[in-house]
Specification:
186 residues, alpha/beta, six-stranded mixed β-sheet, two-stranded antiparallel sheet, 6 helices, 8 strands, 35% helix
Length: 186
């Protein structure tokens, strides 16, 4: 990790801590209760923070060879994929992005995955924050159906609530950029 990379990560952690962590009583998608909620869309769609997410996530996946595209379930993964696509292009890297719909379209070409053709391509599934691992696994399933090779799941913030174990049990390596300790929530 270069000095610039660690600066970007530190700045990202600061933005998430200040602007995307909410304290109170929350019910998560999984139905679980939590005393805080990490709403990454508050920062992933922010012009100051999206480039930092792109830098940090590029560094997280840099050692995975021959990745053609990144993406995941709409909508949490969409701004993350876009940030990687743009920051990657700025670094001279060729990552395309894709979007996985919750259900295949019932019109047009009836696709569940939008973006480049992924058959035979190595891809990374993204998620902004993962609790149960359910969303990334849905994306993995859809991608495998079209013949893509899912080589990793990469998450911006890991809540340490079992997502890693579920995803690794499905045979997919799991990576995350920021943990609860980094946000003072552990």
């Amino acid at each position: 990790m270069t000095q610039h990379d660690s600066d970007a990560r530190r700045q990202l952690i600061d933005h998430i801590s200040r602007e995307a962590v909410f304290h109170g009583d929350f019910t998560l998608t999984s139905g679980k209760k939590a005393s805080y909620y990490v709403d990454l869309r508050k920062v992933s769609l922010d012009h100051r923070v999206a480039p930092l997410i792109g830098h940090v996530m590029l560094d997280l996946i840099a050692d995975v060879p021959d990745v053609a595209a990144v993406g995941g379930m709409t909508m949490g993964a969409d701004p993350i994929a876009s940030a990687i696509l743009h920051q990657g292009a700025a670094r001279g890297l060729a990552y395309d992005a894709f979007v996985v719909r919750k259900e295949p379209k019932d019109h047009g070409r009836g696709r569940q995955i939008e973006g480049p053709e992924l058959e035979g391509k190595r891809v990374i599934v993204l998620e902004d924050t993962s609790t149960t691992g359910g969303s990334p696994l849905k994306a993995v399933e859809a991608l495998r159906k079209v013949g893509a090779e899912v080589v990793a799941v990469a998450v911006v913030v890991d809540r340490n609530t079992g997502a890693r174990e579920v995803i690794e049990a499905a045979g997919v390596p799991y990576r995350y950029a920021i943990g609860l300790d980094d946000l003072g929530l552990a």
